[in-house]
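dumping the sequnces here before i forget
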Amino acid sequence: QSVLTQPPSVSGAPGQRVTISCSGSSSNIGAGNDVHWYQQLPGTAPKLLMYGNKYRPSGVPDRFSGSKSGTSASLAITGLQAEDEADYYCQSFDSSLNTYVFGSGTKVTVL
Amino acid sequence: QLHLVESGGGVVQPGRSLRLSCAASGFTFSDYAMHWVRQAPGKGLEWVAAIWFDGRNEYYADSVKGRFTISRDNSKNTLYLQMNSLTGEDTAVYYCARGSQVSRWFDPWGQGTLVTVSS
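..and the predicted 3d for all of it:
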């Protein structure tokens, strides 16, 4: 059972906008801990996609954006492309458990 | 170019031990905390352990505490994970990842090494 909750799957047609939610609690996201996002393409290692809630590492297209509010965060993909088909994970730190925590993961399917 | 390469995975019987290694290059290894994260087949990501840049502090997930030991050799730019008393629940791909100096994210990640615990 993951500490952070994500929808198992989201889908959209090419060019559409999809959002992935990441729901936490007052001991992790709500405690002021940053949320980070990772993209895992099939058969590969995770790759940092978004850090500090809303910042993109160099090389990540600006089609990806992140936000955080209260005990939740979200990742948006605009102008969905076939290459975006992957698993996406949110991650934060839980101040009560004193551990790093991941979301359950969301599979993005491009229709 | 930042690079992390894990090794040491394989098939091991329940109750036995295994040591994983992670060779780092492209950055000053001794400046960064390092982590192990695992992913069971078809499952999500689980943080396993962390070690501070100087090796003085170690942290573990409850699921591995007392069985796994993280260590590092800064002179060899190498991270280790000693895994004892392995069970089937430890079957996973194990990734090493560099910690951030600013906040608690992981970047980059290695390609991973598969550990299969089976009789």
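The mean pLDDT of chain A is 97.
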